Amino acid sequence: MSPSVEVVGPSIEGQEKILTPEALEFVAMLQRQYGATRDELIERRTAKREEVARTGKLDFLPETAHIRGGDWKVGPVPPALMDRRVEITGPTERRMAINALNSGAKIWLADLEDANTPHWRNVIGGQITLFDAVRETISFTNAEGREYTLRTDAPLATIVMRPRGWHFDDRHLLVDGKPTVGALIDFGLYFFHNAAELIARGKGPYFYLPKMESHLEARLWNDVFTTAEAALGIEHGSVRATVLIETIPAAFEMEEILYELRDHAAGLNAGRWDYLFSIIKYFRDAGPAFVLPDRAAITMMSPFMRSYTEQLVRACHTHGAQAIGGMAAFIPSRRDAEVNERALAAVRGDKTREVGDGFDGSWVAHPDLVPICREVFDAALGDKPNQMDRMREDVVPDAASLIDLSGVTGDVTEAGLRANIDVALRYLAAWVGGLGAVAIHNLMEDAATAEISRSQIWQWVHSSVVLADTGATTDEALVQAIVEQTLSAIEAEIGAEAFATGHYDEAAQLFQRVALDDDFAAFLTLPALALID
After folding, report:
1. For 137, which DSSP code?
2. What CATH number matches the domain at 414-531, 3.90.1180.10, 1.20.1250.20, 1.20.1220.12, 2.60.40.10?
3. pLDDT score of 246 more than 70
């Protein structure tokens, strides 16, 4: 290994099979070739956001009009991705990985991004889990002696790995003395160790790509894929990527994103929670027309969300790609049958809407939801693996409808403010402790939840929103008072000892910084890095 490639993160058990000299040189090659381009694209994000803040407008790109609706197709769907009717998401913790692979879902979204945290033990531990999962040698025994192994009586879920977004640098691996792009670490290590093995097993190196904001960022990923394939002698087009359309600027470039990735594209996903966060972030200072009500009041039936999902299905099917729906985050309760009944009915309704809109598959967060999602899609698809032949010619691309929030009903309330603060504090405390996927109030939450919560509060405070249920003005003093009340309530709930060791003080400081400071942090995880190893 070159002395200019240096691992400075803590030693992780089992790292020797991941952090090999050859693998690290492969990651370093990608960093040297593409790190500067990544830097330029991140700067471009800032410039575009400033333009949107100034004009309050987003639109389709005139320079790419020839691509939108053009007569072109992405590469043919590989057999292992032909049927994606149920996908289960989750972190690469060993027990949860085994449960996901065994769940009966067609796909496991192995998440090294929002359901993970960038603690080095999670970054490398996740790669170890994936190495063993690809080879079907993974097992786990918990502290009570319970063993978890892979089932042999039914097919395992196909792995689709989600690396970190382009915005993230990782200080634990230095190339030429500088931190390495986190996405290149995650992709590079996984591809280097597993691409050939996956292909030999009849599958392939498949990825979900998060947080992109433009087709130029998709072009960068395509270049990375092409270079990686050539470097390891892997056939061009073996990589297949599904892009999460979870930022508002990306929604205006869906067809262009598919076009840039066309040899490597598999489809698009409606990443609803980060999408809401992105709308708030982009238009946070654009005036009252862009102030959204309580998060619970914003449903997928809101007109701007309907426009987003329907245009996504149209873009995918027009160009031979798959459209994958959003997350059912409910975690069934073992104690409250009434909660289960209401929530499962809502899940069924949401999945019925998706399949009716033309989606080819959808996400769940818990194995108990796999049968419900499968039943809904089975009823619509029958023996067909997908419904890519449904063109949605009834949907007309419409830029204005994507950012027209006037049809959203609901109010900003103190109850909504308290809910945002409660969830954000609980999640951030867990995040600092190393958990990226956290069960909170019967929902599986990840970083997107905290992002929506803190960005809504930032917007409400900086817009001096009056709460509909109390008449109070949302300001810094009110937020800080509710933070203190919430912390006291959590301590009473979990006990003083668990509270003292649960990172709640760090969570509160971080939350107040990203929710109240005049300078809006692009991602809360970036200032949070100072709190972890």
Report:
1. -
2. 1.20.1220.12
3. yes
For residue 473, what are its two tokens?
């003005």
In the set 38, 49, 121, 162, the catalytic residue is 162
Closest CA to 448 of 418, 462, 476, 428: 428
446 is catalytic: yes
pLDDT confidence tier of residue 53, bands split at 50, 70 and 90: confident
Which of the listed CATH numbers 4.10.320.10, 3.40.50.1820, 3.40.50.700, 3.20.20.360 matches domain 5-400?
3.20.20.360
**What number is the average pLDDT over the span 464-472?**
98
What is the pLDDT at residue 1?
Answer: 55
Q: Mean pLDDT over all residues of the chain?
A: 97
Whether 418 is catalytic is no
d(CA 93, CA 505): 26
Task: Compute the C-alpha angle 125/128/132, nearest 5°.
Answer: 145
Sheet holding 178-181, edge to edge: 5-7, 169-175, 178-181
Q: How do beta strands 169-175 and 5-7 pair? A: antiparallel
Q: Which of 186, 426, 446, 454 is catalytic?
A: 446
Beta bridge partners of 86: 362
With residue 357 as reference, give the H or E element that holds it.
helix 337-357
Query: Which residue type sits at 89?
Result: T
